[in-house]
Amino acid sequence: MGLQIKQDSTDPARVAVQLEVTGMTCAACAARIEKVLTRAPGVMRAVVNLPMETALVETDGSAGPDALIRLVEGAGFGAEERASDASSERARQEQADAAARAEERRTFTLLVFSTLLTLPLVAGMVTAPFGLNLMPPAMVQMGLATIIQIVVGRRFYVGAARALAGGGANMDVLVVLGTTAAYLYSAILTLRAWPENPGHLYFEASAVILTLILFGKLLETRAKRTTTAAIRALTELRPDTAHRLTESGAIETVPVDALFPGDRVLVKPGERMPVDGRVLEGGSDLDESLVTGESLPVAKTVGDEVIGGTINGSGALTVETTALGADSKLSAIIRLVEAAQSSKAPVQKLVDKVSSIFVPIVVLVAIATFAGWWLTGAELDAAIGATVAVLVIACPCALGLATPTALVAGTGAAARAGILIRDIEALEIAHKVDTVVFDKTGTLTEGRPAVTDIRAFDRNDDRLLRIAASAQLPSEHPLGRAMIEAAEERGLQLSRPSDFRAVPGQGIIAEIAGETVLIGNSRLLQAHDVDRFMADQIARSFAAEAKTCATVAIAGHAVGVIALADTVRAETPAGLARLAELNVAPVMLTGDTEAVARTVAEELGIEKVIAGVPPEGKAETVTGLVEEGRTVAMVGDGVNDAPALAAASVGIAMGSGSEVALETAGITLMRPRPDLVADAIGVSRATVRKIRQNLFWAFAYNVVGIPLAALGLLTPALAGAAMALSSVSVVTNAALLRRWRAKAQ
Ligand SMILES: Nc1ncnc2c1ncn2[C@@H]1O[C@H](COP(=O)(O)OP(=O)(O)OP(=O)(O)O)[C@@H](O)[C@H]1O
Ligand SMILES: [Cu+2]
Ligand SMILES: [Mg+2]
């Protein structure tokens, strides 16, 4: 493999300093800063990244961050030290995790304490039917209840006070009102009757309610922590150290934070990829499942891109670093999923609004209940009991949990399948999608066309291909690349055109040996008054075989036609069949000719075809479909489809996972597989279904519970149990979503 492992050493003297630079306006600024930094004593390398506004400086340890900052400031810019990305991100996660665990432990201890104090209070209730009276004396009851009210109740009092101060009312307000009413009423009775025995007391009710709610909270935080664990696992994918190859070919093990873009790293068999990069040497199979959801190993050879966090198979790889830390794909994914999970869904905003109206209404109902019982001549005792039960059963905590728990579980399950959901809005819209617009080239097909036939009018096919491929040398278009490849296969000598211009959606215009060469479709020929008759005839015959044709014209005369074919992706038919199952209509949108598009569409069973659309017309076409009243998902392969992705109700970027696609598309598929589109719609439907179920049950429980409590059919303690149970069932129901699996394997 040509790799010689000479030594494994760490070089503590090498220090990487990251600076955040402000005030840069252009590349010249960046170059100036780079020069100033590079020339400073002790600096080995400096790289300034203009769009990221950062400078990465490698020093031998003698130039500290402060000195470097002064240098940048001396050049007229602002600078600040930036904490190293990978470690700060992980530290942040670990901190949050530790805090969550500590909170959980505290809640658990409190729960045990609260349960122990509550048990004597309920002992009387439980044993009474057996003719035993184990109820402790009223004063003891009051002592126990007071401790619970203060120690356990504290967090609810604080929460309620905070909500009221903010002008709102939440579940804590109801909990506080209910338990305080029960407690105070019992306390007053006890004190007034002392030393006699008072009548019926509600100490056990307030204690049981607080204990149960605490129990619900504990289950809730635990469930939440396990649903986010899938995402947290992603951050743990990145290794801490990497084997860097030095100029001399030695190998040193360095912290990942000390690497620079451009550094070459050695990845040994079985190790995790420390950075995003390109393979320079070697070959291996990579397990990308945790990043892209692809379950089969992916073969990588020289020139292929690798993603940090994936697992190397049995080969050793030398990789050139292209992105690290916060710039890496893994970081982008983590940020995306985290942002999605914490963004507020429109339905959640509605729930918040409902809750804020709901609480005052409940208080009114409670007052009415009390008045009703009182006025009909009932005991004060019964009136208080019913009122407390109303306040407790009305607590909307299940309502508050219904949406966020389902969303976290749904987006987490999707991410595991390689479906990244940027925001909750995308998830909510995706479930309504009735039309999916597919870009043809690169989405339904592989996007790697190959030259199949050459029809030179003078029968000199090689000459035609040589001219065409030469003219295409500067082209980025897949059709152009295919021509170059075909020419190279035939060993033809190519020469760069002296002038080159791409006409989007039509073709190219180049200058070769003083002659203008046009290569493209009918529209290009028409625009330049080239006789199209013969070329169109040929193109039509090839269209039946789903081959795309490009006509070559020299000095205004058509001289031949080159036919190219692209293969349909293996997963496309299954993907379309599953969309049909979901009752979603597919539409093909392409810049190719109607005839070719029709042939491919017929083969795939797609009825609606919109062909011959120039790149800038794609967004317009999508907007047109949206205006017809459809909910449109546009599936494209990234960068050039960005406007159309943005125009759709929801944009689905496929495959590339490039930054641009991540930013513009509501949903990104990490693998170039059209069948994941159905899964994206599927997970969205499953999540929205869960949210609706949860909301329904949470509401139903309140709607049924409140009248029962008002009529005195629910004891306060039972109401507390019912409330805790409803919260737990909502959280459990949402957690079931974690079992969702993509059908695309
Ligand atoms: N470099 C090129 N060489 C030859 N023909 C070209 C070139 N660029 C564009 N064309 C012509 O313009 C047409 C439309 O190109 P465009 O890039 O808009 O669509 P596409 O990528 O081929 O298909 P899709 O819209 O499905 O992605 C092509 O089918 C081809 O006929
Ligand atoms: Cu509650
Ligand atoms: Mg295209």
**Helical residue percent?**
40-55%
- The first-to-last residue Cα distance is 33 Å
Largest sheet: 7 strands, mixed
Q: What's the number of domains?
A: 5
Protein name: P-type Cu(2+) transporter
Membrane topology: Multi-pass membrane protein
Family: Belongs to the cation transport ATPase (P-type) (TC 3.A.3) family. Type IB subfamily.
Keywords: ATP-binding, Cell membrane, Membrane, Metal-binding, Nucleotide-binding, Translocase, Transmembrane, Transmembrane helix
Tell me what the structure shows:
This protein is α+β, with helices and mostly antiparallel strands and 745 residues long. It folds into five domains: 15-82, 2-Layer Sandwich (Alpha-Beta Plaits); 98-232 and 339-394 and 697-738, no CATH class; 241-327, Calcium-transporting ATPase, cytoplasmic transduction domain A, CATH 2.70.150; 408-445 and 568-687, Rossmann fold; 447-567, Calcium-transporting ATPase, cytoplasmic domain N (3-Layer(aba) Sandwich). It contains 25 helices and 27 strands. A seven-stranded mixed sheet has the order 1-7-6-8-14-9-12, with no helix packed on it. Strand 6 and strand 7 (251-255) form a beta hairpin. Helix 3 (85-127) runs antiparallel to helix 4. The radius of gyration is 34 Å and the shape is elongated. Bound molecules: adenosine-5'-triphosphate, copper (II) ion and magnesium ion. Adenosine-5'-triphosphate binds at residues 439-442, 472, 475, 477, 479-480, 505-508, 519-521, 548, 550, 590-592, 615.
